[in-house]
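Lecture 7, part 2: worked example. A protein chain together with adenosine-5'-diphosphate.
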Amino acid sequence: MSDVIKLLSDAVANQIAAGEVIQRPASVIKELVENAIDAGANNIQVIIKDAGKTSIQVIDNGVGMSETDARLAFERHATSKIRKAEDLFCIKTMGFRGEALASIAAIASVELKTRKADNELGTHICIAGSQISSQKQVSCPEGTNFIIKNLFYNVPARRKFLKSDRVEYRHILNELHRVVLTNPEISFSFISENKQVFKLTTESIRQRIINIFGKSLNQNLIKINTDTSIIKIDGFVAKPERSKKTSSEQFFFVNNRYMYHPYFRKAVEMAYENLIPQGEHPSFFIYFSVNPANIDINIHPTKTEIKFEDEQSIFQIINASVKESLGKFNIMPSLDFEENITRDVHLTSKTSIKPPNIKINPDYNPFEQTEDRKNYKRDKIPSNWDSLYTPSGANETRDDFFLPEENEPIQKNLIEDASMKTEEKNIFFQLKNKYILTSGKSGLILINQKRAHERILFEKFLKLLETRKGVVQKTLFPVIFEPSASERAILLEVMSELNNIGFEIAMLGQEKFEIRGIPGDLTDIDPKKTLEQMIYVLGEISGSAELVLHEKIAMSLAKTAAFKIGKLLHEQEMEDLFYRLMSCANHNHTIEGKKILEIISIDEIEKKLN
Ligand code: ADP
Ligand code: MG
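Predicted complex, written out as structure tokens:
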């Protein structure tokens, strides 16, 4: 039999490698901007068209490349940043794999103009599908200018998987946030569709955070600063009232590199326990400095997951350090640290560490002890958050959500069709605060209560969007909403529709919005948090081609306003929910196609019990 194994051509090998490094336009931007930072640039411009799908340009004023380097840069494993395996343990640059440019050149057309300071002329290279089509000398400014066009033009399957422009744009903004937040000494400008999205000049980290996430963050940032022998922690945590329904303002950086670290995130979130409502997340911008030899940044091709040598000890240090900062601002009961434990830790990876010794007054009740505390609670925590997301009091019912409206009769025939009309009395049970059980004509009916509530609200809001008959309920005071750039783009797209269903949102200049009213059906909600969460859900589902805009808006509102899993329901509430569900056009599935109810037939039950 003849031999069958062949070496892949470089172009194919690069295309395969590109799958790991370049998933979307945002990955190209990340790689090019990181290269610009490694090249010592202090001014970087990013210009995109069609969320980067049509073109991405990154211009820097860094050291530039020689003619030979400019060609070599596109070869796989070509890098100026490491030479030998040991270098991997003391990486100081953003890149080091020598894969990015080779990958980009394999799946897009690339034009590069670059010049070093001591060369009079620069180099101009055009390359596509890993083939250089032209190289000539050019007169150009010192530094490097990349234009990447038609991403995935030769890999249609990958191009098809790109999401809508809005989703891809959000990914780009997220990526840019991560780099600009670590390099406040570098000026950045970002232009999308010929419009300036941001222009950041050299500034402090604090100022940069505020410039990106809005001025309202200014009074909410608390400094965090701890220096131990295994890790140094700097940065800011936000006061509890800045908490969000999403984790969009949670950032860890290690040695100036963005890091995704769910375990350390838990350490921060635990420090906020009992200070913020369940389901909300504190904002934080935490910068770690560690000896590069003690971390492994090589475990993930896009390098956002980083492994530490001593994660358990660091967990304790982060948790204590956040508590200390919150304590300093009287947000936590005051903590008394034994200085030499938190400040001077000498450990090896095998050493077990005790949590810092914290003295806490056991009688302390964070919400009731002092007048200050009482005021704090009243002022800072919206009085109504708990009614939406926690079990309601024993005698409260959420009539506004559950009870059929007068003009919305229960479709009795639908219930009969579904063989669900209960024969004897309507007895409802709740299981694990998650499922509703009731008996039907043909067996036992199981309902996922959260999905049922989402379906009911979805149909209700869809109807309101179509009839434009939303009733506005004025807020007591107008609420100012200062969205981030990505939130703003989404809000502008749906604002007029939201105003049709009962929101009253107005623009105040370019960056601020004022919420003056909310739909009458949404009593007891925090207008700003609801809007934020809706925008988040809209961003998540905006790529879905099956849904029209009205459905997306109704779905985002339903998902935001539906009660959370774990809500205790009283029998009357369960019954109301059941009948409201039965009056829905589709009571079997959520809009995403997930099952809302299931019937276990008498036959099945008999079989099981035989
Ligand atoms: P890596 O960054 O991992 O080294 P890349 O493929 O991203 O790999 O880049 C390859 C090389 O090209 C870099 O090591 C660097 O020498 C050079 N290079 C890339 N971009 C720039 C730039 N903007 N300015 C100067 N040199 C650059
Ligand atoms: Mg690189």
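The longest strand covers residues 472-481. Confidence is low (pLDDT under 50) at residues 332-423. Keep this in mind for problem set question 3.
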